[in-house]
């Protein structure tokens, strides 16, 4: 099954691919393996793409796909253009509108609608988040609104996921730098416990939370 998604339109063209032997990537695109539950490894030219990892690919077959999403011609979105920036802000909701959480008030984060697929432990939700300013933190948190395993994929620009010992920026103890096609390593343990963590932009950027129910 190849499903064209509209949650990020008109800024990004995204395909969701499920149970396909192969998928042709034409233009320079981001390819992400969502097959965490089945632990299916995808391949490009016999090079593995592990579950919850991604890459950039062009003019090549992606093979052995259980679940994946592809951001086609990902660089076509020019968020250095002021008209594009204003269009995203008008089309997507601010993170505070989405969450109602006080720490999100006034943050330069804007979220697309969500794409949801699967049931039970195969239920996955993804959306894109645009951060319009550099060096903008989302604010430390440890729990989420439901019980899921979460990682983040970088779509455009640069950012980082940071870890803290407590709800205090001075307790920072590590981070993962994010560039397009990168999915950071898991922060959660086998019980689903997270350290305090947050996303911070390095440049204006777009990233994608990947949420998989436990």
Keywords:
single chain; 214 residues; mainly beta; Jelly Rolls; 2 domains; 5-stranded antiparallel β-sheet; 2 helices; 7% helix
Provide structural commentary.
The protein is mostly beta strands. Strand 14 (159-164) and strand 15 form a beta hairpin. It has 2 domains: 2-74, Jelly Rolls, CATH 2.60.120; 80-213, Jelly Rolls (Sandwich). The longest helix is centred in the middle third of the chain and has 10 residues, at 82-91. It is 7% helix and 45% strand.
Write the layout of secondary structure elements.
Blueprint: E1 2-5, E2 13-25, E3 29-33, E4 42-44, E5 47-49, E6 54-57, E7 60-72, H1 82-91, E8 93-94, H2 95-99, E9 109-111, E10 115-117, E11 124-126, E12 129-131, E13 148-156, E14 159-164, E15 172-178, E16 196-201, E17 205-213
Antiparallel strand pairs: 1-2, 2-7, 3-6, 3-7, 4-5, 8-9, 9-12, 10-11, 11-17, 12-17, 13-17, 14-15, 14-16
Radius of gyration: 17 Å
The biggest beta sheet is recorded as:
7 strands, antiparallel
- Count of helical stretches: 2
- Annotated CATH architecture of the largest domain: Sandwich
Please write the CATH class name of the largest domain. Answer: Mainly Beta
Proportion of beta-strand residues:
35-45%
| pLDDT averaged residue by residue | 95
- SSE arrangement, N to C: EEEEEEEHEHEEEEEEEEE
Tell me the structural class. mainly beta
Number of domains: 2
As residue ranges, the low-confidence spans are none
CATH overall fold name of the largest domain: Jelly Rolls
Shape verdict: globular
Number of strands: 17
Beginning-to-end CA distance, first to last residue? 24 Å
Helix content: under 10%
């Amino acid at each position: 099954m190849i499903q064209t998604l509209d949650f990020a339109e008109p800024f990004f063209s995204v395909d969701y691919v499920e149970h396909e032997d192969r998928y042709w990537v034409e233009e320079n695109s981001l390819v992400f393996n969502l097959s965490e539950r089945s632990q299916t490894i995808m391949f490009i030219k016999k090079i593995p793409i592990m579950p919850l990892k991604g890459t950039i690919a062009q003019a090549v077959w992606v093979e052995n796909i259980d679940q994946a999403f592809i951001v086609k011609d990902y660089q076509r979105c020019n968020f250095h253009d002021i008209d594009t920036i204003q269009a995203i802000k008008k089309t997507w909701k601010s993170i505070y509108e989405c969450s109602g959480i006080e720490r999100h008030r006034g943050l330069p984060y804007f979220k697309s609608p969500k794409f949801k697929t699967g049931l039970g432990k195969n239920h996955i939700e993804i959306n894109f988040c645009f951060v319009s300013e550099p060096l903008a933190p989302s604010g430390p948190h440890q729990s989420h609104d439901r019980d899921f395993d979460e990682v983040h994929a970088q779509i455009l620009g640069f950012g980082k996921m940071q870890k803290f010992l407590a709800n205090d920026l001075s307790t920072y103890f590590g981070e993962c730098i994010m560039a397009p096609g990168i999915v950071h390593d898991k922060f959660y343990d086998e019980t689903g416990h997270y350290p305090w963590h947050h996303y911070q932009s390095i440049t204006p950027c777009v990233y994608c939370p990947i949420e998989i129910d436990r």
